[in-house]
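Q&A FORM
Asked by: J.P.
Topic: structure of Plastid-lipid associated protein PAP / fibrillin family protein

PROVIDED:
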Amino acid sequence: MAASSPSLLPSLFIGPEHPKYQFIPTPSSSAYVPRTSSYNRRWKTLRISATISASNPEVRIGPDELVPSILSKVTETDRGVLLKKEEHKEVDEMARELQKYCVSEPVKCPLIFGDWDVVYCSRPTSPGGGYRSAFGRLFFKTKEMIQVVEAPDIVRNKVSFSALGFLDGEVSLKGKLNALDGEWIQVVFEPPELKVGSLDFRYGGESEVKLQITYLDDKIRLGKGSRGSLFVFQRRS
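REPLIED BY: S.T.
REPLY: Here is the structure written out as tokens.
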């Protein structure tokens, strides 16, 4: 990802059927039919399927199961900061599985527009820059991290925070979205605007980010930055 100048927001915030057991006649039943070798093989297959399903309750079939799972994993984690390494791997695995169900050419899908909360990032400093570093979090508590995508090509990012526990502030960016192909987008941002108390000023220069949309529906959006950061966005109600 190239950037013409450093930014406090360097990356776009851009988410077997159970075996149907059949009645098995018993020798005492008038309908009893001796089991053939093919029947035994079929029954053995059913038992194996049942064993796999019972021993692996985490098997997920599709978005209806994956979306709630990934949201439950990242909720109340300070956007991923509090997760352990293994938990980050679990989020990544769920995101990879969801990618299989992504709509064709998500960049062109109207669902991309709207107000989104950034609920997870695999790298804490990707959204928020220095404010989200280990040192920065000692002084700045993130309150909200929002991205608004407006038709036809406007992106607005905002991070609101509390400094030292009593001084409210926010950093915002406005950018222009360019579709690179059906999955990748590029956003060129204007210089960031910082508001702290009664102060309001701009600093720095333009910045640029690229992001691949890997999954999109009416609830969540997943994105992968050009440096590999995974983002999970949840649509604001």
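FOLLOW-UP: The CA atoms of residues 107 and 181 lie 8 Å apart.
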